Every structure is written in structure tokens, then in C-alpha cells.
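quick one, 185 residues, struct below
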Amino acid sequence: MIGTSLKGRLLVATPALGEGIFDRSVVLIIEHDDTEGAFGVVLNRPSTTDVAGSLPEWAQFAASPPVVFVGGPVSPEAAICLARVSAGDADGWLPLVGTVGALDLSRDPELLVPAVDELRLFSGYAGWTTGQLEDEIEAGAWFVVDAHEDDALNADPDSLWHRVLRRQRGRLAMFASFPQDPTTN
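---
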């Protein structure tokens, strides 16, 4: 039983999570419920693949940097899109935080020109079975914090982990200065 859905919130990896794709990662939760579990995308793992080379029809909307991001280790062949819309709604768009939401890539990009301001494409996603994410949070792997709409399409993804932690209150903000390698501290 999840109690409260984390949809639209951020998971920020704690230093205890360790190495790998989730080391210092920031994940935006796209769905979270009692029956399906949870899934989201890692917001701070840009790849070297240009959006224009992968999905050229969407390249005109790509946020900076205009590359495909590694959304997580599950189904790396799956394409997931987050988009900022100027109109309050767009066909095939599911709101998550402010004017940013998930966009169905099967829609015709030309029909969405008036609504979409910018977007980010992700290859793969992070997924958890029912109860798995709650267990990881309880074990101290993730901080759960509120998302700002600028987090998802940020032009400086390499500093996102630090910036999200720095804007928190109290003890949580101190983790922003946690050294990459604690043995060098």
C-alpha cells in the first residue's frame, strides 16, 4: 500500500545508493500506484546521441542540451518524452509538474506545434514493482522532494543533484556538499 502517490515528485539519490546509473541521480516520477508500482526518468544523464539523429521530427522542440537522455536501465529501446506546453493542455499530454508533463510521441509533431514549447527525450526508464520503491525509500536510498517544473528540462543536468538538494530545508540541504568520494574529505 503506497498511501500517497509520488507522481510528479522527485527521487534524489542519497549518497548511500552508491555507484551506477543511480549514483547522484534525480528521478522524476511519472506514475506511481498500488497495482503497477512506479516508473520515472532520470533527469540528469545526458547521452551523446542528438535528438535530430534519433527522432528528427521532434528535434525542433528539443530543450538544451538537444540530446537524448538515459532515462533508466529498463527498456532502453523505449522512448519517453517530457514536454513543456504553453497551452494548458495538449492532445496526448499528461501533466506532471506545472506546465511540464509526459507527451505521447506517437502524435503528429506538426499538430502539436502550437502547444509544445520544448521537450526532452529519454531512452529507457527507471521502474519499480509494487512496494519496491517504498522499500528503497525506507532503506535510505532516496530522498523524496517536490519537483520544480524547471528540473525536467534543465539546461545544466550535471549540477541538478546539487541544486535540488541545496534548495531543500534543514539537514537535507547539507547533502548537496557531500563529496563525490568521501575518502578524500
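The two ends are 40 Å apart (CA to CA).
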